[in-house]
Amino acid sequence: GQQVMQIPQYQHVQEGEDFTTYCNSSTTLSNIQWYKQRPGGHPVFLIQLVKSGEVKKQKRLTFQFGEAKKNSSLHITATQTTDVGTYFCAGATPRGQNFVFGPGTRLSVLP
Amino acid sequence: DAGVIQSPRHEVTEMGQEVTLRCKPISGHDYLFWYRQTMMRGLELLIYFNNNVPIDDSGMPEDRFSAKMPNASFSTLKIQPSEPRDSAVYFCASSPGGSSTDTQYFGPGTRLTVL
Questions:
Q1: pLDDT, tens only, B14-56
Q2: B56 and chain A: CB distance < 8 Å anywhere?
Q3: d(CA B105, CA A28)
Q4: Is B71 touching A (CB cutoff 8 A)?
Q5: Minimal Cα distance from B45: which residue of A?
Q6: How near does any CA of chain B get to the CA of A30, in Å?
């Protein structure tokens, strides 16, 4: 079945440093979504990528969808303590009926 | 809009008891999803509905779990009998429609502890 992996599992950074998490699928995806879950909270939608090679930006966050539509990345520039949380990618295959969530990358930001 | 509403927010019960979790999706959303989140297994899709009809329940762990959606504004997830390994955070999410892979809006979750 479809598998979605994320690396790293955990990341500790000093405030102001950059952070990147990578998402890899065992199969080609039709689209991918990114969610953020604060500690004790619920997943909150960040963005959806659909096109091969697509790049989208939200302030300090940059999202990329790979050319082969099998991987994606989320990059945060100059992290802040408000960026703390777990970042999940969720991928859907062209024939899939629903998204499969990756295991998430837990980000800690030290002030 | 109040967003997706779940109740209760916390539930502590003893093994063997019946547990019912409730969800009210965002008005107008056609899709409703039930997820379970644990440290070991991450976020797992249990079942989802489209227009109140169950579409995919392949994620339901076993017969002890059942879900219903009697109308567009209410769904329940029932565990009977509950076991300690059912302890997890259960999320309900709804999606506006178009497809089951549209943006999902999650509720605050129900933290279930089975002793």
A1: 999 999 999 999 999 999 999 999 998 899 999 999 999 999 8
A2: yes
A3: 25
A4: no
A5: A100
A6: 10
Among B104, B105, B111, most A C-beta atoms within 10 A, so best to mutate, is B104
The label of the residue with tokens 């762990």 reads: B61
Measure B100 CA to nearest chain A CA, in Å.
Answer: 6
Residue-wise pLDDT tens digits, A51-79? 999 999 999 999 999 999 999 999 999 99
Q: How far apart are CA A89 and CA A33, in angstroms?
A: 6
Angle CA B4–B8–B13, to nearest 5: 145
> Is A8 strand, coil or helix?
coil
Distances (CA, A) of A47 to A23, A34, A58, B69: 14, 5, 9, 28
CB contact under 8 A, A98 and B33: yes
